[in-house]
Amino acid sequence: MSLEMIILLAVLAGVPGDTNAAVTPDADAAELSAEGSSISGQPGLLLEDMAEKVMATGKLNPNFYPAQRAAMVVQHFLNSRYGSPYKWFGLQKVHRANAMDVADNERKYEVEIQVQEAISNMTETCSAKVVFFTGPEQKPPQVHASCDDLAKINTTAQEEALYQHYMANDGLLSAQYLPDSYGHIDPDMKPLWHLGAVASSFVMLNESTENTLYNFAQVANVTQLKAENDDLKFDYHVLLHDMVSQEIIHWKLLVTWSPGEGVNVLKTEKLPHCQHCD
Fold first, then answer.
1. Rounded distance, CA 66 to CA 79, Å?
2. Could you tell me the pLDDT band of residue 103, with boundaries at 50, 70 and 90?
3. Cβ(217)–Cβ(36) under 8 Å?
């Protein structure tokens, strides 16, 4: 799969063509569609808004970059706390947002957002606070969010069945290009895709600042590793899209998962930019 195709998929996923479009995910978005982005369809998210250097204070336009940036960080937070191969949270709409300086090196955003759990299609309106640290040392944003109903979605039966299936495999699983250049994902590979998306949220949450807007673009490849305990272990190579810089960023992730322990990202490595990489 060419880098140009990957960039096209990511840009189509993250940058809407109609700035007045309704906030309605397409039919496939309910399962982390091949467009790979929860923010697809958001109105008014313009590149000039994303590039704006002066940070707005007070009441924010919910459709523009400052509000969307904080809301997307909440999405990554929810996925890193509650996500699984059968539970993935996507931002559907920002209802209200405001920002304020709370310290010399801190800015707080308060947002009310509509969040959708993509596999069950359940939605909930959530309130959240996001604090960005603006000092010379980069720190991940602090997030407090209340999405009680979505967090309680019960996927225990599906997860236990998947866990036993993976544990019983004689050969270790592997897959490439989820989705492929045609936007297709084999149904059997969708749990691995969801798991990669959830694991990517750990990275995107940790890397987010007031000058970024990250989306999950693709699982370039994933390999199941030999389990050393009761957790399944996977080596992921994922592609993330920073919609501000338009850069496609490659990361390697060492991920463990079990129904009892949830998703854990043990190791992350940002790969160097490569002009000729597929």
1. 21
2. confident
3. yes
